[in-house]
Amino acid sequence: MGNNLGGTAVAVPQRGGKNFSLVPAVKGTGLAVLVTGRGAAFGDLFNDGKIDVVINAMDHTPVLLRNVSPDHHHWVELGLVGGPKSPRDATCATIYLKANGMRMRQDVLSSGSYISSNDRRMHFGLGDATDAGTAEIHWPSGAKEFVKIPAPDRIYTITEGVGLRGRCAGEAVRGGETSACDAEGEVGMGEFFQGSSRAVF
Question: What residue ranges define each of the domains in the chain, with the CATH number in brackets?
Answer without folding.
Answer: 1-34 (no CATH), 74-183 (2.60.40)
